[in-house]
Amino acid sequence: MADCIFCKIAQKEIPSKLVYEDDTVVAFCDLEPQAPEHVLVIPKKHVESLLALQEEDKALAAHILVDVIPQLARDLGVAEKGFRVVANTGEDGGQTVKHLHFHLLGGRSMQWPPG
After folding, report:
1. 25-35 burial by CB neighbour count: b if 16+ within 10 A, else e?
2. Which candidate in 38, 99, 101, 103 is catalytic?
3. What are phi and psi of 53, to 5 degrees?
4. What is the DSSP letter of 28?
């Protein structure tokens, strides 16, 4: 998507503080962190939201959830005490960028309900 800010970050057209990158995924620090550690994990492929994932995206989604997020949690030092992963979907879900992204938040006690 030509006008997608996250696609531009993934393609390094917009600078960001990358904390992880591989062939299919990038992770970078959130510009408005809501916790001491707040990283966004995005696929390089443009997928609008969780609802837009297709059969062909199963390996990508599994890679993000099974490989990338747990490794980042360890790397950021939040795995042992705990962390939260959020994927806002749609307007009422609070999704402001129409590109699938996971918020990894940690470094403080998370409250419930979240908001």
Report:
1. bbbbebeeeeb
2. 101
3. -60, 140
4. E
Of the two residues 52 and 113, the one the predictor is more confident about is 52
Q: What is the pLDDT of residue 2?
A: 74
**100 vs 82: CA distance, rounded Å:** 23
Contact 37, 107 (CB under 8 A): yes
Dihedral, 87, 43, 9, 73 alpha carbons, nearest 10: 60
Tell me the two tokens of residue 30: 């959130």
Contact 6, 97 (CB under 8 A): yes
pTM for this entry: 0.95
Q: How far apart are CA 78 and CA 104, in angstroms?
A: 10
Q: Residue 93 — very low, low, confident or very high, per pLDDT cuts 50/70/90?
A: very high
Confirm whether 101 is a catalytic residue: yes
| Cα atoms in the Cβ-side hemisphere of radius 13 Å centred on 60 | 21
What does the alpha-carbon distance between residue 111 and residue 55 come to, in Å, rounded to a whole number?
A: 34
